[in-house]
C-alpha cells in the first residue's frame, strides 16, 4: 500500500496517522507541528473559520517543500496534512510530521515546512467573526514568486 | 479556450469558481486586463497567477487548453 505523504482533506486530521507516515528504523526523533484555530486575533473574536484550497497545486507545493527539505536535510522525512472546509475553535488545521535520526534536524525542517506553507501553498482561510466575514490575505505581504522560492520572511502567528 | 480558476474573495466577487474564455496566445497581463473589463468588480493587479499549477509572471504566455488560477495572498497553515 502506498501512503500519501501529503494530503488535503475535509475531515478531522488524525495526528497519529500523520506521525506514522514518517516512522522508520533510522529515526531517533519525530517532531509534530499541530496548527489549531485560534479564538482571538488582534483583539477580534473568531466564531469559526473556513479553509479553501487549490488541492492539486497545493499537493505539488507540499512536494516542492519536501524537496527543499531533502536538499538541506537529506535524512529528514516529512508528511503534511491540511484540512479544508469549516473549522471551529481549537480544531486542527494542519499537521506536519518530520522524522530524522537526531532531533535538531527534525525541529528545523518542521519549522521550515510551516514557514514555506504560509508562502507558497494555495490555501486560504475565511474568518467568520461576530460582525462579519473576511478572506484573509497578506499575512506575509505576499508578492509573486516565479521560482516558488521567496526569501523567508518573519514568522506569522498560527492560523 | 482558457480555463480559469478563482478562489477565495475572487470567487465570491464573480459568483463562479471556474470560467472558460475563448482566448489563446495572450500574456497573463492581457488576460487579467480582459477579465477586469468583463468583470469590473475584479481587481487582479496584485494577484499571483499559476499556469497549469506552476507560478507564472505577467509576461507568461497563455495558450488554449491551459488552466490559469488566480491566487490571492494565501493564508494557510
Brief sketch in words of this structure:
The complex is a heterodimer of chains A (159) and B (77). By secondary structure, chain A is α+β, with helices and mostly antiparallel strands.
Essential attributes:
heterodimer, A: 159 residues, alpha+beta, Aldehyde Oxidoreductase, domain 3, five-stranded antiparallel β-sheet, four-stranded mixed β-sheet, 3 helices, 27% helix, elongated, B: 77 residues, Ubiquitin-like (UB roll), two-stranded antiparallel sheet, 32% strand, globular, Beta-grasp_dom_sf (chain B), Mopterin_synth/thiamin_S_b (chain B)
Summarize the helices and strands and which ones pair or pack.
The complex is a heterodimer of chains A (159) and B (77).
Chain A: E1 6-9, H1 15-21, E2 29-36, E3 40-41, E4 44-53, H2 55-72, E5 77-83, E6 85-88, E7 92-100, H3 103-120, E8 123-129, E9 132-136
Chain B: E1 2-6, H1 8-14, E2 18-21, E3 26-27, H2 28-38, E4 48-51, E5 54-56, E6 61-62, E7 67-71
Parallel strand pairs in B: 1-7
Antiparallel strand pairs in B: 1-2, 3-6, 4-5, 4-7
What features would you describe in this structure?
The complex is a heterodimer of chains A (159) and B (77). Chain A contains 3 helices and 9 strands. Chain A is an alpha+beta fold and 159 residues long. Chain A has one domain: Molybdopterin biosynthesis MoaE subunit (Aldehyde Oxidoreductase, domain 3, Alpha-Beta Complex). In chain A, the strands form 2 sheets. In chain A, strands 3, 4, 6, 8 and 9 form a 5-stranded antiparallel β-sheet that branches. A 4-stranded mixed β-sheet of chain A has the order 1-5-7-2, sandwiched between helices. In chain A, strand 3 and strand 4 form a beta hairpin. Chain A is elongated. Chain A starts with 5 loop residues before the first strand and ends in a 23-residue tail after the last strand. In chain A, 34% of the residues are buried. The C terminus of chain A is likely disordered. Chain B is of the alpha+beta class. Chain B has one domain: Ubiquitin-like (UB roll) (Roll). In chain B, 23% of the residues lie in helices and 32% in strands. Chain B has a 5-stranded mixed β-sheet with strand order 2-1-7-4-5. In chain B, strands 3-6 form a two-stranded antiparallel sheet. In chain B, a hairpin with a 2-residue loop joins strand 4 and strand 5. Chain B is globular and about 35 Å long. The termini of chain B are far apart. The model of chain B has no long low-confidence stretch (mean pLDDT 96). The interface between A and B is medium-sized, with 40 and 21 residues.
Amino acid at each position: 500500500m502506498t501512503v500519501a505523504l501529503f494530503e488535503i482533506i475535509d475531515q478531522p486530521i488524525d495526528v497519529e496517522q500523520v506521525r506514522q507516515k514518517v516512522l522508520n528504523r533510522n529515526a531517533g526523533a519525530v517532531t509534530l507541528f499541530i496548527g489549531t484555530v485560534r479564538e482571538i486575533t488582534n483583539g477580534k473574536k473568531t466564531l469559526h473559520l473556513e479553509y479553501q484550497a487549490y488541492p492539486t497545486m497545493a499537493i505539488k507545493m507540499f512536494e516542492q517543500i519536501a524537496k527543499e527539505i531533502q536538499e538541506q536535510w537529506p535524512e529528514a522525512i516529512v508528511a503534511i496534512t491540511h484540512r479544508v472546509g469549516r473549522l471551529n475553535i481549537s480544531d486542527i488545521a494542519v499537521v506536519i510530521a518530520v522524522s530524522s535520526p537526531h532531533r535538531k534536524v527534525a525541529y528545523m525542517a518542521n519549522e521550515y515546512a510551516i514557514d514555506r506553507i504560509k508562502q507558497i501553498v494555495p490555501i486560504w482561510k475565511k474568518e467568520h467573526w461576530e460582525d462579519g466575514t473576511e478572506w484573509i490575505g497578506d499575512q506575509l505581504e505576499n508578492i509573486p514568486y516565479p521560482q516558488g522560492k521567496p526569501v523567508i520572511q518573519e514568522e506569522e502567528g498560527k492560523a | 479556450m482558457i480555463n480559469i480558476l478563482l478562489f477565495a474573495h475572487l470567487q465570491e466577487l464573480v459568483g463562479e469558481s471556474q470560467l472558460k474564455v475563448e482566448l489563446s496566445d495572450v500574456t497573463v497581463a492581457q488576460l487579467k486586463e480582459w477579465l477586469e473589463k468583463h468583470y469590473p468588480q475584479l481587481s487582479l493587479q496584485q494577484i499571483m497567477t499559476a499556469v497549469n499549477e506552476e507560478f507564472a509572471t505577467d509576461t507568461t504566455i497563455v495558450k488554449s487548453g491551459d488552466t490559469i488560477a488566480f491566487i490571492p495572498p494565501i493564508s494557510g497553515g
